[in-house]
Amino acid sequence: MPLVALHGNGVDHRMLLGLDDVLAASGGWERIYPDLAGFGRTPALDAPGGLPELADWTVATVRDVVGDRPFALIASSLGGLLARHVVAAMPDQVRGLALLAPVVDPVPSRRSLPPF
Questions:
Q1: What is the mean pLDDT of residues 64-74?
Q2: Of 5, 24, 27, 87, which shows the fewest CB atoms inside 10 Å?
Q3: Average pLDDT, stretch 25-37?
C-alpha cells in the first residue's frame, strides 16, 4: 500500500527519511517522499501560491501518485495541515493518518500551546 510522507516548512523530503528503515522493516509500504511545491527540487507555485494553493497542489500530487488506490499518510508540521486537507478531499481512499507535531491551525493567535 502506498504511504505518502509529507514534510514540514523549511525542509524537504529528507526530513522524514529517518523513518524509512522502520517503515521498510514493517513491510507492505510503498514509501513515497515528495517534496512540497517550492521545497527541494520541486518548483514553487505560481502567484499567489499561498496556503490554499499549496493544499490543492498537494491533493493533486497525491492523486497523481496513488491514482485510485487506497493509501496512508504520515506527515510532519506543515505537512500535517496539508495531510488533513488530503484526507478531507480523498476520504474514501485514505486508510490511515499519522501526524508528527502537526500544524493544526495555521493562524498562530488561535493556537493553544504549552509553555516551553
A1: 98
A2: 27
A3: 94
pTM of the model: 0.89
Round to whole Å and give the CA distance between 95 and 62. Answer: 14
Helix (H) or strand (E) holding 41: none
Phi-psi region of 27 (alpha: psi -120 to 50; beta: other; left: phi over 0): left
What is the Cα 98 distance to its own chain's centre? 10
Q: Per the structure block, which three cell numbers stand in for 75?
A: 506527515
**From CA 72, how far away is CA 107, in angstroms rounded?**
26
In order of 8, 102, 104, 105, 106, the CA distances from 109 in angstroms are: 20, 16, 12, 9, 9
If residue 97 lies in a helix (H) or strand (E), which one and from where to where? strand 94-102
